[in-house]
Design goal:
The complex is a heterodimer of chains A (386) and B (242). With 386 residues, chain A is mostly helical. A four-stranded mixed beta sheet of chain A has the order 2-1-3-4, with helices on both faces. In chain A, helix 7 packs antiparallel against helix 9 and helix 7 runs antiparallel to helix 11. Chain A is elongated and about 95 Å long. Chain A starts with a helix and ends in a 6-residue tail after the last helix. The mean pLDDT of chain A is 84. Chain B has a six-stranded mixed beta sheet with strand order 6-7-8-3-9-10, sandwiched between helices. Chain B has nine helices and ten strands. By secondary structure, chain B is of the alpha/beta class. In chain B, 41% of the residues lie in helices and 26% in strands. Chain B is globular and about 50 Å long. In chain B, helix 3 runs parallel beside helix 5 and helix 8 crosses helix 9. Classes of the chains: A mainly alpha (386), B alpha/beta (242). Chains A and B meet through helix 1 and helix 8 of A and helix 2 and helix 3 of B.
Chain lengths: 386, 242
């Protein structure tokens, strides 16, 4: 029988059609692909909030002067700290930290005002609950910033009052006009949603692809396929195309969900966003395919997908922890995580509205991932049982 | 003409020798019975002949193609029904048939013709919209056979096709196999039911990975001086061990 190009497509089409039929017969899988990302987006979007406000603080003011009160009032004025209690004994401060009623404690010893007025060096003590490192870092930052501004302001007033304003010239801090670009209100959601999109896609798509193929092994139908003349690439493409399309459908739902529910702005071009999504999907399908060449059962596939995709996508992609603050060797490892590049692209397109001219490196990186993963997986994919 | 020609075919899994240097030939158009107890190496042999397992040693030609270098060409010439007849449980009878016709690239007109013939043989046309799980075991097995012959393969490999099927269905199934052979299909069938072996023109006894005897049912009974194939098999298995 002559074997032309058209006939080759018929075998491919047979697989694609079968996969679609199976997806349709299994509403659970279809539901997982289409709606799980949206549901998880909603859950995480509301639960994960990196903004830290109203840090519980307990103060011991042993100075009890105008200036000490002014200092404390200023501290709680901007909602970063919430004054829970004023205690009289500094010993009590540690007790509050132990009990967890305070995340930060501040002790102003007596002589606070006197030393300030006499231009002597004074000390105030700040204690922070370090068991929550994230909150600790942020409270430390707020407090030291606030103290610096307060003492600068004071020095300036003093110098002006004593007619030595000339001397103050070097001391006057530049008026820093802060302007935060891309996410002016510093909303966590704007920052998290792109991360969630990439993490969820990476997990779900690779998992489902791996399950779809190991499922054939578990049900023995793989043996039947392996005994047929169908080519390995037809089998692979036939499996990947339906899952790529359905996953893309999931993306089409998750993006408006992010925009409508969390007011994440979409400043960039939608087509470029789709372009990135498509190459990222191909790369994650490649991961799924690779897993299926190693895993013998659906359960194994599930475990491997969780450890190979979910953990790295959350921890090493820059979704939760900034890559810049990781140790050098970890920073190198993050280059093996496709989600990292997709995330940069997503944030860039959503929040900055930038295009391919600035994101071409990410595009190239993702294309290399897609290509290498597909090639390696296809080479490993054997139409054999040994 | 030879449909299968195996020479010193061997398969090891680690240190375990599943199939040990077996040689035999299968004449085209005959029913060849591959008999032996569970774990004798029947499935391993059939998987090697279908190009699913790579032989550790030895050669085999199937449909004139060398398994070592032309396994994919072999796959076009054979139909295979694995031990746990693997149908898609979530596809209907018609969809299972369509799928196998698709991956074997059966041209449309030919497919319609073959389907009509298969329906006449199996009576499956009544169950087209049902899922395999809704069918009784005997019908599921017929559907699996239908899927394996949808592309009219000249050689058909059946691995324990009648295990777990009631006696009436077993008899009907062997009638089907007989019809296929009459039409010129070579049937290579493994079984551990000795009574089924009477339907075969040639029989190979295999035990512990070794080929213990080869011949027609009559020859094997005469050689061993036994009345039944069951006794003959015990005789050959013992003789080999001595």
């Amino acid at each position: 029988m002559p074997r032309g190009g058209v006939i080759k497509l018929r075998e491919l089409w047979a697989i694609i059609r079968k996969e679609f039929l199976q997806i349709r017969r299994d509403p659970r899988t279809l539901g997982i692909i289409l709606f799980a990302p949206v549901i998880m987006l909603v859950l995480y979007g509301y639960a994960v909030d990196f903004e830290i406000k109203n840090i519980a603080i307990v103060v011991c003011d042993q100075d009890q002067t105008r200036m000490s009160r002014e200092f404390i009032n200023g501290l709680t004025a901007n909602n970063y700290f919430e004054l829970k209690e004023n205690v009289t004994d500094p010993e009590q401060l540690l007790e509050r930290l132990d009990a967890g009623t305070a995340k930060a404690v501040l002790w102003l010893p007596s002589g606070f005002e006197a030393k300030l007025l006499a231009a002597q060096e004074g000390q105030i003590f700040l204690g922070i609950d370090g068991s929550d490192a994230n909150t600790a870092t942020i409270s430390m930052g707020y407090l030291s910033g606030y103290t610096r501004i307060y003492s600068n302001k004071l020095s300036l007033q003093n110098l002006q009052r004593t007619g030595m304003a000339e001397l103050a010239r070097g001391l006057i801090p530049y008026q820093v006009e802060q302007r935060i670009w891309y996410n002016p209100e510093m909303k966590s959601a704007h920052f998290i949603i792109p991360g969630l999109i990439s993490t969820l896609l990476m997990m779900l798509v690779s998992l489902l692809t791996a399950m779809a193929i190991t499922g054939e092994k578990e049900r023995n139908t793989f043996e039947q396929l392996a005994a047929s003349p169908i080519k390995a690439w037809q089998l692979i493409l036939g499996k990947l195309i339906p899952y790529a399309l359905v996953s893309f459908g999931g993306v089409l739902l998750i993006i408006p969900a992010g925009i409508l529910l969390f007011q994440v702005p979409l400043r960039g071009n939608l087509l470029i966003l789709f372009f990135f999504t498509m190459i990222f999907l191909i790369a994650t399908l490649g991961i799924g395919l690779l897993i299926s060449t190693i895993a013998k059962s659906q359960q194994q596939a599930m475990l491997m997908a969780a450890s190979l995709t979910a953990m790295p996508a959350v921890l090493l992609s820059g979704f939760v922890f900034p890559i810049e603050s990781m140790p050098k060797f970890l920073q190198l490892i993050t280059n093996l995580i496709p989600a990292k590049f997709f995330l940069v692209a997503l944030r860039g397109i959503f929040l900055k509205g930038i295009g391919l001219d600035l994101l071409y490196q990410q595009a190239i990186a993702l294309m290399i991932f897609a290509l290498v993963l597909l090639i390696v997986a296809s080479l490993r994919f054997k139409k054999r049982l040994d | 003409m030879l449909a299968v020609e195996a020479t010193k075919l061997t398969r090891r899994f680690g240190k375990f020798v599943a199939v040990n240097q077996i040689s035999f030939t299968v004449t085209a158009g005959t029913i060849f019975g591959f008999l032996g107890p569970n774990g004798a190496g029947k499935s391993t042999t059939i998987r090697m002949l279908c190009g699913l397992l790579t032989p550790s040693e030895g050669q085999a030609y199937v449909a004139g193609f060398d398994l070592a270098t032309q396994a994919e060409l072999v796959k076009e010439k054979i139909g295979y029904m694995s031990q746990k007849f693997s149908l898609y449980p979530d596809l209907t009878v018609a969809e299972n048939l369509d799928f196998y016709a698709g991956i074997y690239e059966v041209p449309k007109q030919e497919y319609e013709k073959t389907k009509a013939e298969i329906f006449a043989l199996t009576g499956l046309q009544e169950q087209l919209r049902q899922l395999p799980s809704e069918l009784p075991g005997g019908w599921r097995q017929r559907l699996a056979l239908a899927c394996a012959i949808i592309h009219r393969p000249p050689i058909l490999f059946l691995d324990e096709p009648t295990s777990g099927v009631d006696p009436v269905s077993r008899r009907q199934f062997w009638e089907l196999i007989g019809l296929l052979a009459e039409r010129g299909t070579t049937v290579f069938v493994t079984t551990h039911f000795m009574d089924e072996a009477e339907h075969c023109q040639q029989i190979a006894f295999i035990n512990g990975g070794n080929l213990v005897s080869l011949g027609t049912p009559t020859e094997l009974k005469q050689e061993s001086g036994c009345e039944s194939l069951e006794e003959a098999f015990v005789y050959f298995a013992k003789r080999r061990g001595d």
